[in-house]
Design a protein that fits this description.
30 strands
Length: 556
């Protein structure tokens, strides 16, 4: 006989019903598991009936007292691998050339002073547009979205190291209330207008402040802003995304993300062209009502909820804007340039196959790059990327045969890294939220390029910083507290402590003298080296990222 564990320290004679036999709530299930047009059903019944499959295939039970009328209560049970992986288009400039085409060594100008600003080699214009996007081929309709050039993800920009370009971003989104609502309890939204204002940030690039796309560099519908990108970073994978104050999460949820690659004529010989594949990893949730599928976002994120959620985790994995795609490969090496574009979700990436005995086998792959460019190649069987991180991967399909399949999977729990504390057997968040399946690779016949020997030293641009030369060590504590104003809302702090004997300070979204704090603690000397330590006493990870500067990880 099988049972259900409740939690340590409980006894059967305790007051209260610790056994969920008669607990009743919403049960989510799929009547026809292999039918891609069956998105799932909901039925109110007991925990035991739900998990035993008494009236239908085994389902997912929610908490006691829930009902099927709650929006988004059931995740979509979508059959994976129903559509081919879309590859974002390369954006062509309206003037000049993209990438490093025709660039000579003498074209590199490592000058940052404003009086020596170079003429951009290429000029682009990108419009943020409202659009309709279909995430899954069997959905009966398209879902509302925002897209750069009306595409989700937006078009890829290819630049060349040391060669500047200019980009004119135009906000052509409707001058109307935001489709995902407006929360006046979130910093920014509490004093700005209820329209889809934007701010475009090139994530990971070291740009002057005026071209950084920081959260308050807002562009309202009908306006535009010109950016000048110097591209002084090492050859690497960046991405541009919306960063508007108080509404970043909503604009990104609707689709405002895209790749940006910095290349170099001196890059090592690596898989390229059709063998170089960008992968944008995200998660989404959907609702199905009255024959229509809509993008779902938790109400506590949308309206004036005094207790808003701290994070969002979707119930469906999205790669390059579609649900669990497949991709056809030949017997060759492929370079995958991966970006974690999710709101909260971390991914532990693994390539797996099923052997002839039916066992799942983890496959090795080569990591050749991270956020700031190439790294010393390392063979691994898994790698973790948290939100906004990037990783550059080589996977070799040359030993496979036609008809073989390989899967890209995710082994990271949500919340990361400890997962949901399942203290009761009928918690609201089930293992389905961990999203283990991402995409499928199908080996087909076709031309394969010759094997490439990946050099041990890929990065001629990298130099290691020496901690012994640090001028100062700053320590920061990630903390949270309640902000008792009209919203009584939860807020997060970055607190400094033991900084050269200075007292502890707090930095959040208001309520104290930020100017004094910044002068005391965030004004490093020009061209100096510092060590910054971040301490997170909580049970969820939070990646830290600086605008306008480079950094190297010393340890975790």
């Amino acid at each position: 006989m099988h049972g259900a564990w409740t939690r340590a320290g409980t006894r059967c004679n305790n007051t209260g019903n610790y056994c969920p036999r008669f607990v009743t709530g919403a049960c989510c299930y799929k009547e026809h598991p292999d039918d891609p047009s069956d998105f799932g059903s909901c039925r109110v019944e007991t925990f035991v009936d739900c998990y035993s499959g008494k009236h239908h295939p085994k389902g997912q039970f929610w908490t006691d007292g829930t009902n099927c009328d709650i929006p988004g209560i059931c995740p979509f049970f979508l059959v994976p691998y129903q559509q081919s992986l879309p590859i974002p288009k390369i954006l062509n400039p309206y003037s000049g050339k993209s990438g490093c085409d025709g660039v000579l060594d003498g074209d590199y100008k490592q000058i940052r002073s404003p009086q020596h600003k170079q003429t951009p080699r290429a000029e682009y214009e990108i419009e943020a547009l409202s659009c309709k996007h279909k995430y899954y081929p069997h959905f009966p309709n398209r879902q509302v979205g925002f897209g750069y050039e009306g595409q989700i993800p937006g078009p890829t920009i290819e630049a060349c190291q040391g060669v500047p370009i200019s980009v004119k971003y135009v906000n052509k989104l409707p001058d109307a209330p935001h489709p995902l609502g407006f929360d006046t309890c979130v910093h920014g939204s509490n004093y700005l207008d209820n329209v889809p204002f934007t701010s475009v940030h090139l994530h990971g690039a070291s740009n002057p402040t005026r071209y950084d796309g920081w959260p308050e560099a807002l562009v309202y519908p009908g306006d535009d802003y010109h950016y000048y990108y110097e591209n002084l970073d090492s050859p690497t994978s960046l991405f541009y995304h919306d960063h508007a104050l108080g509404t970043t999460r909503k604009n990104i949820m609707l689709g405002l993300e895209a790749f940006y690659f910095i290349r170099s004529p001196h890059e090592p010989h690596l898989p390229s062209g059709e063998y170089e594949i960008p992968l944008l990893l995200q998660d989404r949730s959907f609702t199905f009502d009255d024959g229509r599928v809509d993008l779902y976002y938790p109400p506590s994120y949308q309206v004036n909820d005094p207790f808003p959620s701290d994070e969002f985790a979707g119930t469906v994995a999205i790669v390059n804007g579609v649900v669990n795609p497949y991709f056809e490969v030949t017997c060759a090496q492929y370079r995958f340039r991966v970006v974690n574009g999710a709101n909260t979700r971390s991914f532990i990436l693994q390539f797996v196959k099923v052997d002839r005995h039916g066992s799942i086998v983890d496959l090795p792959f080569l990591v050749i790059g991270s956020d700031q460019g190439f790294v010393e190649p390392k063979t691994v069987k898994s790698i973790c990327i948290t939100p906004a991180e990037r990783v550059d991967i080589i996977f070799d399909f040359s030993e496979f045969e036609k008809g073989d399949k390989v899967w890209l999977t995710n082994d990271a729990p949500i919340p990361f890294p400890f997962g949901n504390p399942r203290s009761e057997p009928y918690t609201a968040i089930d293992s389905d939220y961990d999203l283990p399946e991402l995409m499928e690779f199908r080996v087909v016949e076709g031309p394969s390029h010759h094997h490439i020997d990946i050099p041990d030293d890929l990065n001629d641009y990298f130099y290691r910083l020496h901690p012994s030369e640090a001028r100062k060590v700053r320590s920061f504590l990630l903390d949270d507290d309640w902000f008792f104003n009209t919203c009584n809302k939860h807020r997060w702090f970055v607190k400094s402590f033991n900084v050269d004997g200075k007292p502890e300070h707090g930095f959040s979204n208001g309520g104290w003298d930020a100017k004094e704090y910044l002068e005391d603690n965030f004004m490093p000397h020009l061209n100096s080296l510092e060590i910054w330590e971040f301490w997170n006493p909580g049970n969820e990870s939070h990646p830290m990222h600086l605008h306008g500067n480079y950094f190297q990880i010393l340890g975790k």
